[in-house]
Amino acid sequence: MKDIFDRENEISLLKNSLDSPLIVIMGLRRTGKTSLVRSVLNEEKVTYIFLDMRRFENKEYIVYKDFIQVLEKEINRIVKKNRDLISHLQIRGVQIMGISVNFSWGRDKVELSDIFSSLNDWGEEKGKTVYIVIDEAQELIKLKGYNVLYSIAYAFDNLKKLNFIITGSEVRVKDKFLKLQDEESPLFGRTHIEINIKPFDKETAIRFLEEGFREQRINFEDKERVYDILGGNPGWLTYFGYVYIKTKDEEKAIVNTKKYAKKLLSREFCNFLKEGGRDKRRYVKVIETCKEGCRWKDIKNSLEALEGREINDGTVRDIVNNLLEYSFLIKEDKEYIIADKLLGEISDLRC
Fold first, then answer.
1. Burial of 253 by CB count in 10 Å (0-12 exposed, 13-18 middle, 19+ buried)?
2. 316-351 per-position pLDDT tens digit
3. Which residue from 286, 288, 297, 341 has the least number of CB within 10 angstroms?
4. What residues contact 256, with CB distance under 8 A and at least 6 apart?
5. How far is CA 266 from the centre of its chain?
6. Are residues 250 and 140 both part of a single domain?
7. Which stretch of DSSP H or E encloses residue 214?
8. CA distances from 124 to 82, 88, 127, 133 (A)
9. Within a domain: residue 138?
10. By residue range, what is the domain housing residue 190?
11. What InterPro entries would the database entry show (predicted)?
C-alpha cells in the first residue's frame, strides 16, 4: 500500500468491507478513489473487473452498446488469465472466439444479468468472489434505453459470489445514479458500505510533499507555499512533485501544474455546461463569487448584478444545487466554497 498516503482508515474500512455486496466510495476527482480501490484489490489478490466510466465524460449521452463494449474488454482481460471462465459464458448474445468473447448489443443483445450470473457461477466453482468496480459511475446517468440498476439489484439479491464497488462524486453517484433513498429505485433500501475520500488538509498535504521529496532525497522547503497555491488535491500535488523532480525549478513546476490542472478543470466544467445546456455567464459568476467562500444571499446578489434585474429564488437554487451535485461547490457551515481552489482562477472558459 505504499502508493496510498495517509488513507489508513479508508484502507482498513475497504479491506474489512470486501464481503459486502455493495461498497460506495465517494469523493472529488483526483483525490485517490481509483488508486485506493486498485491498491487494496491487488494487495488482496482478488479477481476484479474494472469498468472505467470516465471515458464517457465528454459524451452527452451513451447507449447500451457503449457500456457493454467496456465490459467486454474487461472480461476478455480476465479470460486471458482464467480460460476456464469461457465455458460459463456460453449464453445468449455471447460469441466465443477462441480465448475471447464478443458481446452482442443488437436485437439478440446479451443481458447484463446473464453476464453477472455467469461470473457468479464461475466464482462459485473457483470458491472466490468476483468484484465489479464501476469507477466514476455517475457517468452512467447518461445511459439511455437501459437501466443497469436492475441487474445490480438482481445480483445483490441472488448472486453471492459477486460484489460491487461503486465510485464517484457524492451527490451524483449516491442520489442521482444509485438512488439508494428513492423508493422507485431498484436498489432502494439495500444495505451498503460508504467510504468518503477527502482532499488533504494543510498538515497532511505538507507531510505528503515532505515524504515524497524525502524518497527522492530532495530537501524542499516551500511545502506550505505549494499548498497555499495549489490546495490539497493529491492529484495536483503529485503532478507538482513530478515536474519539480524533473526540472528542479519550483516556479516552473507551479506554473506547469496550474496549467495542467486548469486544462482538466476547464474541460470538466465545459462538459457540465454543455450537458445541461446551462448558461455559462451565470455559472462562471457563481464560481467567481465563491472564490473565498460565500453565502446564498451573496450568490443571488451577484447574479442579479450580472443581469441587472431580479432573479427568483428558484432559479438561484437550481444553479447552486447543480454546482453542488457536480461537486464544483461544497457547503460547509452554511457557506459555499469552491471544491477545487484552482477552478476559481479560470476566467476564460472557451466552451
1. buried
2. 999 999 999 888 999 988 899 999 989 988 877 777
3. 297
4. 239, 243
5. 17
6. no
7. helix 202-215
8. 14, 11, 5, 19
9. yes
10. 8-197
11. ATPase_dom, P-loop_NTPase, WH-like_DNA-bd_sf, WH_DNA-bd_sf, WHD_MCM_arc
